Amino acid sequence: MATMADLLPTVEAEVAAARSFVTLLELEQEMLTKGEVEHLQELVDQKNGLAVKLAALAEQRHQALVAEGLTADRAGLSAWFAAHPKADRAHAAWTLLLSIASQARELNRMNGELIQLRMQYNARALEALLGTHRAFGLYGPDGQNTLSSGPRISDSA
After folding, report:
1. What pTM was estimated for this model as a whole?
2. Name one GO biological process term (predicted).
3. Is the pLDDT higher at 63 or at 155?
């Protein structure tokens, strides 16, 4: 069972893992921006591994808080810091962790948008190649514009 003596090393380990996670998110963003997605699955696997590690470290922190009779959340940690005002290093590490987590959330949000854009682009490209979408103003197999919505004049009369 974790104790509050484990808090500083645990939060410092969380900071290191979160920094690594941010580095992977930045690499993912670069890959998505450049369209270099051939190694994206390897990156996802690395991110998943770090996410598991971060969850285990957070669980250690939660157990330490509960062992002290506090809630296993930010409020519990704030209460612990209020009761231990000289725990400057732990407080600084926690503040840094919150900042890194915020950066990770923003990068993850932006990467999600990049993925959506890439998926839309790929869908449009596939539709254009297969001729399954009528909104492009392309010509159909009969040589007629696919956007034409009104009656067509036939020259066969």
Report:
1. 0.75
2. bacterial-type flagellum assembly
3. 63
